[in-house]
Specification:
498 residues; alpha/beta; Nucleotidyltransferase, domain 5; seven-stranded mixed sheet; six-stranded mixed sheet; 37% helix; globular; binds adenosine-5'-diphosphate; binds 5-O-phosphono-D-xylulose; FGGY_N; Xylulose kinase; D-xylulokinase activity
């Protein structure tokens, strides 16, 4: 059997893993950082050619002998980014990203045109929140009128990489549901939401076909030659990074809870049917295997820890050592880490807040701990909605860069009162993309092991050395601090109302 490549175009970097399904091991990997253009108005943008150049650089770092054995490639990407193309497939403007809060007025305008947030949920399963793709279109109409005039196709980041790899335009249901335009119950575009976004043109014409999760498309021969891949290599449907991390953490059956600690913080679980919350307390997305993926996403996870580490002059990679003398609750120091504005809770104009400072507790270590805790309190807030809805979990599967911190692993176990398991394959999204490609190839071959849950069960391996068990004393300390988090959140909401 050949090798399977998984690419993850994240916010901070591109990651590439090459997986050998026979050996059950990652045989090569490469990562390369990405720039981010940030504006005071909350804009967060990247250029599509940065992604392509970085993907090229990652492939170049893999041994050519391994590249020559790659049978299929799966692509994962940060969700929601708006990639506008003209009719010749040229990119018209920088991509506004999932963490771009400059379009919150346009979110309100779309929801008003559709009949309000509750009506959006009735129509398509989700309100139009800051970060989702939909509001970036009217923003483009207002601020980039030339790009709007020439707009022929809308893609998401991973769709664009698929287009570059294959020359074919498509979307799949998982990432497409993060546009805000997909009716997640019918798994098709909502005409009402499209019309509410742009009453003057048929946006449906700008959206490429939605292909099934097990689709395979041949790579472009010229690009295969350039990247050193076989001309027979294929590209699977791919998906949003959370959809791919679901596969890469074995979250393809009900009852598993995954948490990703990256630029964003996310919590998600698999559902075999649409999982819509009438109050919109979670994102009712589709997954990239034919199911659904109720998801909580915060915009400030490692955003907050990186900011504190930078301020205090250390690397987050060394953060655990600094935390040695600290304890749950950070000695009373509490951070509401909404540095970039926030989606969960819905405070696009929010800012970070620090509470509980005394003459003795304001140390770099407590500050760093407060950032880590604050990132998890935000997720806890969303998790309670899932629990209210009757969902129960026995453990957390942790992935994303933050999963490399032993302190964060233990903190998650203690705060949520659940054991934390960490897959051996630490790049959950990139690994999930490789597994999706493997699954699609096995299905196309009619192979016996083509059932995804069986495939994930046999390929996603947990690393017992990285597991953490909850300690009840710490759980109680976090619960007390979490109550403060909620009361401070109530207090600051009016400050950031518009
Ligand atoms: N050992 C560590 N301790 C704490 N944080 C870490 C550690 N290793 C990585 N990280 C964090 O993880 C981030 C990268 O996470 P990742 O999931 O790759 O992000 P994204 O997919 O959003 O680009 C780093 O910027 C850093 O903040
Ligand atoms: O917006 C969301 C999910 O709705 C984010 O989770 C993005 O998908 C970006 O992910 P990372 O780059 O942080 O992995």
């Amino acid at each position: 059997m050949g090798l399977f490549a998984g690419l993850d175009v994240g916010t901070q970097s591109v990651k590439l893993v090459v997986y050998d399904p026979e050996q059950r091991g990652i045989v090569a990997s490469a990562g390369q950082p990405l720039d981010l253009a940030a504006g005071d108005d909350g804009s967060r943008e990247q250029r599509a050619d940065w992604w392509v150049d970085t993907v090229r650089a990652c492939f170049a770092r893999i041994d050519p002998a391994l590249r020559g054995r790659i049978e299929a490639v799966g692509v994962s990407g940060q969700q929601h980014g708006f990639v506008p193309l003209d009719r010749d497939g040229n990119v018209l403007a920088p991509a506004k990203l999932w963490c771009d809060t400059s379009t919150s007025d346009e979110c309100d305008e779309i929801m008003e045109a559709a009949g309000g947030a509750a009506r959006c949920i009735e129509l398509a399963g989700n309100p139009i929140l800051a970060g989702y793709t939909a509001s970036k279109l009217p923003w483009t109409r207002k601020h980039r009128s030339q790009a709007y005039a020439r707009l022929a196709t809308i893609l998401l980041p991973h769709d664009y990489i698929n287009y570059w790899l294959t020359g074919e335009l498509w979307m799949e249901h998982g990432d497409a549901s993060g546009t805000g335009w997909l009716d997640v119950r019918r798994r098709d575009w909502s005409p009402e939401l499209l019309a509410a976004t742009d009453p003057d043109r048929d946006l449906r014409a700008c959206l490429p076909p939605l292909l099934a999760a097990d689709t395979l498309v041949p790579i472009r021969a010229a690009l295969a030659d350039e990247l050193g891949l076989p001309r027979s290599a294929q590209v699977s449907a791919g998906g949003g990074d959370n959809m791919m991390a679901a596969i890469g953490t074995g979250n393809v059956v009900p009852g598993v809870l995954s948490m990703s600690l990256g630029t964003s913080g996310t919590l998600f679980t698999y559902a075999g049917e649409p999982a819509v919350d009438p109050q919109g307390r979670w994102a009712a997305f589709c997954d990239s295997t034919g199911g659904w993926l109720p998801l909580i996403c915060t915009m400030n996870c490692t955003v907050a820890t990186e900011a504190v580490a930078r301020l205090c002059g250390f690397s987050s990679r060394d953060g655990d050592a600094l935390l040695a003398g600290t304890s749950p609750g950070a000695d009373g120091l509490l951070m509401l880490p909404f540095l970039n504005g926030e989606r969960t809770p819905d405070l696009p104009h929010g800012r970070g807040n620090l509470f509980g400072m005394t003459a003795t507790n304001l140390t770099p270590a407590n500050l760093y701990r407060a950032a880590m805790e604050g990132a998890l309190y935000s997720l806890m807030n969303g998790y309670e909605a899932l629990v209210d809805a009757g969902l129960r979990f026995e453990a957390i599967r942790l992935t994303g860069g933050g999963s490399q911190s032993a302190v964060w692993r233990q903190m998650a176990a203690d705060m949520f009162g659940l054991p934390v398991d960490v897959p051996e394959q630490s790049e959950g999204a990139a690994f999930g993309a490789a597994l999706q490609a493997l699954w699609a190839v096995r299905r196309a071959a009619g192979a016996g092991d083509s059932d995804l849950s069986a495939l994930a069960a046999s390929h996603v391996r947990l690393d017992p050395r990285l597991a953490a068990q909850p300690h009840s004393g710490a759980t109680a300390a976090y619960a007390a601090q979490y109550r403060h988090f909620l009361s401070h959140l109530d207090a600051i909401r009016p400050l950031y109302a518009d």
